[in-house]
Amino acid sequence: MQRSGRTIGCGEVRQELLNKRIKLAGWVNRRRDHGGLIFIDMRDRSGIMQLVFNPDFNKAVHELAHQLRSEDVIEVEGTVVNRSPETVNRELATGAFELQVDKLVILNKAKNLPFTLEEAENVDEELRLKYRYIDLRRDAMQHKFALRNKVTFAMREFLIKRGFYEMETPILTKNTPEGAREFLVPCRTHTGTFYALPQSPQLYKQILMASGFESYFQIARCFRDEDLRADRQPEFTQLDLEMSFINEQDIQDIIEGLIAHVWRTAFNVELQLPFERMPYDVAFGTYGSDKPDVRFDLPIHDISSVFADTELKFLRTTLDKGGKVGALAVHDHEFSRSELDAMVGRAQKLGAKGLLWLRFKDGKPDSPVANFLSPNFLDELKKSIPQASASTTLFIVAGPYDEAWTILGRLRLLLAGDLNLIDPNVHRFLWVTDFPLFEYDKESKAYAAVHHPFTSPQEGWEKLDPKDMKARAYDIVLNGIELGGGSIRIHDAAMQDKVFDLLGLDKATAQKKFGFLLEALQLGFPPHGGLAIGIDRLIMLMTKSASIRDVIAFPKTARGYDPMMAAPTTVDEAQLREYGLKFAPIKKEA
C-alpha cells in the first residue's frame, strides 16, 4: 500500500468524521478475536480507537490481522462508523465509533515484551527504567508528560508576556564553592583543568543583570553530585529567573501570578492569592520545619515551663543545658497502649534518642513517668496548651531546640498520615521568609551561608552577631515540599567582601573563585533578585506521583544509575591519557 501518513490521531475521531475514510497509525494496544471479526484497540499519543477487521471488507487484510499482537506498530485505513448502541464505550472519547479497516500495513513487529503495560506498576523499577521507552507508553505516563509540556509552555507564555527574555547560560562552567558537590568535567585542550556542571545558573544570571537585561528566565538544566532520594536526581530542571530594580514583594508577586496561571491552564482552577507568608522562626517553632505542610493543624508546643521543677533526670539535664521540651498534642483520639509503645520505636527511626508519651485517665496522667507528675498536671499543662483536655495525648521530645523540634516536625508528618489529617486534593502554597543569613557548622567550627554567599542581609545586620543575622531570602513551599527558593542579591562590593569575611573566605580565594563577579560589582551593578522553582518537583506534586523519577523522561535510579544506557561507564586508559588523567586508588578513612 502506498503510504502518505496518517490523517488524524486515534483519540481525535469525532462525529464529523462519521462515514468518512481516514488513515491512522500507532500501536496495537489490545486484540480480541470474535470468530469471524477481529477487534483491535489501536493507540497513539492522542488516545485509543477501536478497529474492526471483517473478512467481508477485505479478506486478505483480515488474514493479516490474525498476525497482530500487542505493541505491534501498524498503519490502517478505513471508514468511520457508529458502534452498535450496546457496545458504546462511554469512558473513551472515541467510544461511540469504530473504524472498518480495509487496508493494513504492519510497520514493526514487536517481540514478547519484558513486561506488559498493564503490569508495569508492579514491576521492579530498575527493569522499568531499563525499558523506559516501554514504560513511557503507558497512558498514565503519557498524561504526566503532556501536563509537563503544558506547564512549561504556560510558564514561558506568562513570563514573556511580562517582558522577560528567555536566555541560555553555559553548561560547562567554573567550579565554585556554592554548597552542593559539583560534577567535574576534564578538559582535554587544557590538560589538568576541569569544567564543572552548574548546580544552578546563579552566577550567570547575576551577570545578566549587570548586562542590563533586567528580566531574565530559562528552563534550566542543573546538576548536583549528591546522594539521591525520592525528590532528588543528579540532573534536574528548574525555572530560573532574575529581575533588576525590584524587592522581595515584586518577585513573590510574579511567582504567585505565574503559579496561578499554571493552575488555571492545567486544571482550570483559580488559586487564592496572595499566598500565606510565614517567617522562618514561626515556621520552625510551630512545625519543626522550614517547609511546613500547613494542610493540617498539628502544631508543636513548647512545654518547657511545665517541667521547670521536674525531678525527671533526663528532662532536668536537658533544661539545665539550655534545651527545650516540646510536644505534639493529639486531641480526641484514643491510642491503644501498643500503638503508644510502638511510637517510641518509630520516633527513634526518625532520629529521636527517645520519645515520651502521656495521656490521661480519670483526669490524671497516664505515662511511663506518671509517678513523677503531679495529680493536677492537666491544669498545669493548660497554661501551655489551652486546648488540652482529658482526651489529649502528648508525644514529648526533649533536647537542644533545633534537634528536638526537627524530630517533632518529622513525627508531626507521621501522625498526620496515621490519623488521615491530610486532604490529598488540597494544594496549600506558603512563602517562608526571613531566613537566617548563616548557619553554624559544628564540625568545621565556621559559618556557612543558608542560601548562598550572594544573598543580601536584612537591614541592620552589621550590628548583630552572625547567628542573629537575617537574609532577604524566601522559599516557596507546596504541601510541605520546597518548590524553590530565592533572595535579593548583594549588589555592593563592600557588602560582598564583609559576607565573604564572615564565611571565612579570604580575599585571595574569593578573587580566584569569584573574581569576575567581584569586578562586575564595581562596574555598575543594579539591585537585583530572583528565584528558581524545581519543575520536576512541581510536576510530581501536580500529578500526585510518588517520586520525581515518574515525571522525568529518562531518570537515574536511586543509586544514580541509568539502566537503559548502562551509565555511568568505565573509560579506557588511552582515553584517560588524552586528558592527562589516570585512576588512583581511593584511600578509605580510618
Please tell me about this protein's structure.
This protein has 590 residues and is an alpha+beta fold. The chain has 3 domains: 10-108, Beta Barrel (OB fold (Dihydrolipoamide Acetyltransferase, E2P)), CATH 2.40.50.140; 142-270 and 429-552, BirA Bifunctional Protein, domain 2; 296-418, Gyrase A, domain 2 (2-Layer Sandwich). The protein has helices at residues 59-65, 125-130, 132-135, 139-161, 202-210, 248-267, 280-287, 313-320, 337-349, 377-381, 401-418, 493-502, 507-520, 535-542, 573-578, and strands at 21-34, 37-44, 47-53, 73-82, 97-108, 165-166, 184-187, 193-196, 215-223, 235-244, 276-279, 300-302, 324-331, 356-361, 364-366, 392-399, 429-433, 438-441, 446-449, 473-478, 481-488, 528-534. An 8-stranded mixed sheet has the order 6-9-10-22-21-20-17-11, sandwiched between helices. Strand 20 and strand 21 (481-488) form a beta hairpin. The chain is globular, with a radius of gyration of 30 Å. The N and C termini lie far apart (72 Å). The model has no long low-confidence stretch (mean pLDDT 94).
